[in-house]
Amino acid sequence: MSQAENRNGAWQRALSRWSRGAARPEEAELSRLIADAAEPLPDFNDHAFGALFDRLGEARVVCLGEATHGTCEFYRARAAITRRLIEKHGFTIVAVEADWPDAARVDRYIRGRPMLDGDGEPVFDRFPTWMWRNREVEDLVRWLKLHNDGVADPARKAGFYGIDLYSLRGSVRAVLEYLDRTDPTLAAEARRRYSCLNPWQEEPQSYGRAAIVQGKAPCEQAVVTMLNQLLERRLDLVRRDGDDFLDAQRNAALVAAAERYYRAMWEGGVESWNLRDTHMVDTLKAVLEARGPDAKAVVWAHNSHLGDAAATEMGQMGEVNVGHLCREAFGGAVRLVGFGTDRGVVAAADDWDGAMRFMRLKPVREDSYERLCRDSAVPRFLLDMTDPGHAELVAGLSHRRLQRAVGVIYRPETERMSHYFQTELPYQFDHYVWFEETHAVTPLAGPERKGEPDMWPFGV
Q1: pLDDT tens across 47-59, in order?
Q2: Is domain 3-7+17-164+281-438 annotated with CATH 3.30.360.10?
């Protein structure tokens, strides 16, 4: 039995003793227990910061969340943890809640892979640009490049991969460009099949509306057949270049998943969410397989994706998510890390496709987990909820409370309805990182100069 299984088994037994028939503890007592268990966080640039997270090193998959899509401290903390896991624990995959084609261009840059036509164009230049096109991510990409330049074995270089499914047009283009280089006959077939999507590539969400009106899925068979045709050529194409084939295969899988996703959006219910998160985990599995049996991955995404949905009210409504599916797939080899804050400034928009604004976060509600953390009076800390010594605290935290989730949109006027949901924190995450006051990410300026080697891949 592994150290992780021993530790988690002991924690579960201790939790069972504490929680059996336990009354809901007083809030002040819980905040005191948090303060006792909290491990204060040093500065991000201090080696001691990364060393605190060595406890994650034995995992195969480490999921690092965030409570907003626009908070500097979350990005810097995740970057410091990621650097440590790469340098000290052999992680070679950074998988992020971003578009595969953009991330693939970053990957070619940091691993020194051959560049393709169009790779000089800036990346992450669609809404929400600040989510990945920011100074914090740029700093990590520069570090990854320097790190990889010092690694002789290509198999040990750290890669950067997008696991989301919104890049329908970019993924169609990437598949066609790949087949133009490797199989012109199949490229012609792909153009014929993908032409079905042409009316909707600029506004893919309208495809779902059209499917509902027509009462059928006009492009489903075409995109699935194209993916299957590509997979039938796998052995031959992998021999030419495994990384290039992985790009093409994941782009073709993304097109097929996006076709289902945009239909599900119009059908309502939880299906579109489940399709999206299932696609993200399928992509993660494909990357792990491609990088070899010893590959280990760090995943960056929002808390709502990475905290186990089974421990939330969304799970009760039938939703699954990346954290839940990773626990099912990898068992004790996965670690889920949540992040939270009380107040500060966040980069967000009022509505989808709206302009980014620096918005002040309202202090958290009194009936939230974040309020318990704030009242601990420890401004920055790591809380390890797998530690058997914290069983009393974990049992108290197991009573369901509110948790705040801010994505790319923040609506403070309807904050309770728009941004809070019920969770059971110790089952949702293995570890929790807290910053009492936070600041916005630093967005990069819009792309004006293109293809300059010292500025690529962000083109600013």
Answers
A1: 999 999 999 999 9
A2: no
